[in-house]
Design goal:
Helix content is 45%, strand content 15%. It has 313 residues and is α/β, with parallel strands linked by helices.
Length: 313
């Protein structure tokens, strides 16, 4: 595995961002957050309306990485074994063989995750946190890198199962693609008129380089003062009266790791308070459990007020 410094990580990120945006017309911030989750060894929750490019974004990332890609279409009758795999009896050899599920790919798209049952949703908990699955008492390691990109539609809730807090807490960032500008949409009509543009993408990096980038991100320096700042922000969300359940220690850790990834994507070997402030909303907002009489949009204001209240050393 090659060794990379933050400057090289920034170059890899720039190539990936440019390549993905050749096929998917989305804001720079969306692709940046996707790469932050990838380099911080996290996962992404995309919450947006149908037809805005959620699936194309995951496919474009996988093709840009030359990585194995798998898609899980969630339905009410989907079972955990359909995701993680199962043991099948081989009659010829008189023994059970493990048949891996789609989570053994590098980039796993879990489409409309809230349309499958909580039992099946929970099948993702172990693999997202620990990078392995346990079937019939046997542990099976997943591919590296491994990133889950889950989608859900915020406008249609009939027949869905809202993700529990424990599941939401596994996602490093939550993003929304939004509608493209009129100019971008017109360009999309031209690009996709004859065929799927994602199929034209060529890899701009490889799995070994991504793993090296992840190792470089882990080595980015975060000072004691900055770590205390991140912890204070987490405590600030827990102290807000509008919040029943504030940012967990895992959420604080994910914010710190995401800030390190952002620093590396900017070519820096150290984290700044600006990195933390830039990512606080996409990393923390979906993790807050608000009081019943609180508007759902208040999660952003809770975080913004904590940012304003907590001094950045």
């Amino acid at each position: 595995m090659p060794e990379l410094d933050p400057t090289a990580v920034a170059a890899v990120g720039a190539r990936l961002r440019e390549n993905v945006q050749r096929a998917v017309k989305v804001d720079d911030r969306v692709v940046r957050d996707l790469l932050i989750a990838l380099f911080a060894e996290g996962h992404v929750l995309i919450e947006d309306y149908p037809g805005v490019g959620k699936t194309a974004l995951a496919r474009a990332l996988a093709r840009s990485l030359d990585a194995e890609y798998a898609r899980v279409q969630c339905t009410a009758d989907l079972l955990p074994a359909d995701i993680v795999g199962t043991n099948v009896f081989n009659q010829r050899e008189a023994r059970f063989e493990f048949h891996p599920g789609p989570v053994f790919a590098n980039v796993v798209l879990v489409d409309e995750i809230n349309r499958t049952s909580p039992k099946t949703q929970s099948g993702l908990l172990e693999c997202m946190q620990e990078r392995h699955v346990t079937v019939d008492g046997h542990q099976h390691e997943l591919a590296r890198p491994f990133v889950v990109i889950a989608t859900q539609n915020p406008a249609e809730y009939e027949g869905t199962y809202p993700l529990p807090e424990a599941q939401l807490d596994r996602f490093t960032v939550r993003v929304s693609l939004g509608y493209p500008s009129a100019e971008q949409e017109a360009q999309m009509l031209s690009d996709h008129a004859r065929h799927d543009v994602v199929l034209d993408l060529r890899p701009v990096t490889d799995i070994a380089t991504v793993r090296a980038a992840q190792a470089a991100v882990a080595g980015v320096h975060g000072s004691d003062a900055l770590r205390r700042y991140v912890v204070a922000l987490g405590e600030g969300t827990r102290a807000d009266r509008r919040v029943e359940l504030g940012a967990s220690p895992r959420a604080v850790l994910m914010l710190f790791r995401a800030a390190k990834a952002l620093a590396a994507l900017d070519g820096r070997d150290h984290v700044l308070p600006d990195d933390v402030q830039e990512l606080a909303v996409p990393v923390l907002s979906h993790r807050l459990l608000l009081a019943p009489d609180t508007d759902a949009d208040d999660a952003r204001s809770v975080i913004e007020e904590a940012l304003a209240r907590v001094p950045a050393f």
